[in-house]
Design brief:
By secondary structure, the protein is an alpha+beta fold. The chain is built from 4 helices and 18 strands. It has a 6-stranded mixed sheet with strand order 1-7-6-5-4-3. A 3-stranded mixed sheet has the order 2-9-8, with no helix packed on it. It has a 3-stranded antiparallel sheet with strand order 13-12-17, with helices on one face. The longest helix is centred in the middle third of the chain and has 19 residues, at 118-136. It is globular. The N and C termini lie far apart (46 Å).
């Protein structure tokens, strides 16, 4: 698929009165829940074969905020559209009613699809997320006490990642589980989704530990507390630092557009232990 257009989006569970209600898309398959290295992805295809929309939803394993990708393809057209939507955890829980689910993009486009089977898929996703947290050594009680998530910057704007001739660029992303202490420092960093290069993974973790600046998470009383943050670093956004100008650049394969990766197995790194 070529000529992909991207747009950021916001979610609206009920269409604004000024906007016409869209046609509710008919599913052409069942919801599938797939476990990747660091995510539990719910996916389903809607619409006809000539104009189909694939909905992929990945709630964050720690925060519960869901990243949604709407991939729209029309047969006979040379381009498609991938629209990304962020749904707060509180909103995601309300999408289990019998009413159709309506997403509103930043440019006002509405996409509606039936909620049939969504509650069961979300339940399976929650179980998947619980299993991942257990594999990482994160107890649910520590997650539940977070009222305000830790926010900040990874500090990789001007970092040059090391060259690795064995890296083919296929995955293009490294997923990091960060333990953020009550002072906002990264107390521990674990790779929970590899880029395909152990060298790049380790270097990225080290740089994030040294450079990241966070506002710590807070509990319901407003006190700063330890927490975990799952971060995905896209390697195409980082410059490559070649150790020797005479060295050829590493071969780079095709860049994956979507964020649903069904080929990776569940990994269980050692448990992070915030100081």
């Amino acid at each position: 698929m070529t000529g992909l257009a991207f747009s950021t989006a916001i979610v609206s569970l009920l269409a604004a009165p000024a906007l016409a209600q869209p046609e509710v898309l008919t599913p052409t398959g069942q919801w599938r829940v797939t476990t990747t290295d660091s995510r539990c992805v719910m996916a389903r295809q809607f619409g006809s074969r000539d104009a189909r929309t694939t909905v992929a939803i990945a709630p964050d394993v720690v925060s519960g905020e869901a990243a949604v990708a709407l991939s729209q393809v029309t047969v006979g057209k040379s381009d498609g559209r991938v629209t990304r939507v962020l749904i707060p955890a509180s909103k995601l829980a309300t999408m289990t009613s019998d009413a159709p689910i309506t997403l509103e993009t930043k440019n006002g486009q509405l996409v509606a699809f039936t909620s049939d089977g969504f509650a069961d898929a979300l339940k399976a996703s929650d179980t998947c997320r619980t299993n991942l947290r257990q594999a990482w050594g994160i107890d649910d009680a520590s997650v539940a006490q977070v009222a305000v998530l830790a926010t900040g910057k990874l500090g990789l704007d001007y970092w040059e990642r090391p060259a690795d001739p064995s890296y083919d660029g296929t995955l293009n992303v490294v997923s990091l589980l960060l333990a953020v202490d009550a002072e906002g420092r990264v107390a521990d960093c674990r790779v929970v989704g590899s880029s395909g290069s152990g060298k790049i993974d380790r270097a990225t973790c080290t740089e994030v530990t040294n450079r990241a600046v966070f506002h710590p998470a807070k509990n319901s009383a407003g006190d700063a507390i330890k927490s975990w943050s799952l971060q995905r670093v896209r390697l195409e956004n980082l410059r490559i630092n070649f150790p020797d100008p005479r060295d050829p650049p590493p071969s780079v394969g095709p860049i994956s557009v979507g964020w649903v990766n069904t080929s990776s197995a569940l990994s269980a790194p050692s448990a992070p232990s915030p100081r």
